[in-house]
Write a structure and sequence with these properties.
Length: about 200
């Protein structure tokens, strides 16, 4: 399985002004905005860390999932959520010949924990021997920061603030997730079952 992010978060969608207020940075000075590039980097890093821990996509963007085998015959779990739309399913043969699957043959099962691509006809179409299937989909709570759940948004601010405060330190546990952040994201974490096909 290989998940590729097709579109990145637009700079305009990031809550830069809110994060600046959260940090209580001064205003009214000639150099206001001089740190914006760094603040944006801390926000992006915090968003990536929170998304990695929860498998929840905070701001909507497009993804491409490539598989060489289905996880189940009738449904394929998608690795992140919430998924709003499946844009297409394409079978790719060993020689890279592409065949777009008719959308009437599959459907999106929306689920906050485990969204799935499910067959609408009984079984998912067969993947070519030596080939793969690519699933294009859009995931995220919404296009604007106001659509991100409050606890996840606060977790991003807390983690980004830690990155900002430790930017000049060589702290050994700088990669550790703070307890307050873990408490905020705990209910969003997906419990993974090992060993079963679902």
């Amino acid at each position: 399985m290989m998940l590729k992010e097709i579109t990145a978060i637009a700079s305009e969608a990031l809550p830069l002004a809110e994060f600046r207020d959260h940090l209580r940075l001064g205003t009214g000075f000639a150099d206001v905005g001089a740190e914006d590039v760094a603040l944006e980097a801390y926000l992006r890093a915090a968003i990536a860390a929170i998304e990695g821990r929860t498998s929840k996509v905070l701001l909507s963007r497009d993804f491409l999932l490539a598989l060489d085998d289905w996880r189940g015959d009738a449904a394929q779990p998608l690795p992140v959520s919430p998924v709003s739309i499946v844009g297409g399913v394409t079978m790719i043969a060993r020689d890279e010949t592409r065949d777009v699957v008719d959308p009437s043959r599959y459907q999106l099962v929306r689920d906050m924990a485990r969204p799935r691509l499910a067959s609408a006809t009984g079984l998912l179409p067969g993947i070519p021997v030596g080939g793969r299937v690519e699933i294009a989909f859009t995931a995220g709570f919404g296009a604007s920061w106001s659509e991100v759940p409050v606890d996840l948004a606060q977790a991003v601010f807390l983690l980004a603030a830690q990155y900002f405060e430790q930017r000049h330190d060589n702290v050994g546990d700088a990669g550790a997730m703070p307890f307050g952040v873990m408490a905020l994201i705990e209910r969003w974490r997906t419990v993974r079952v090992i060993g079963g096909r679902s």
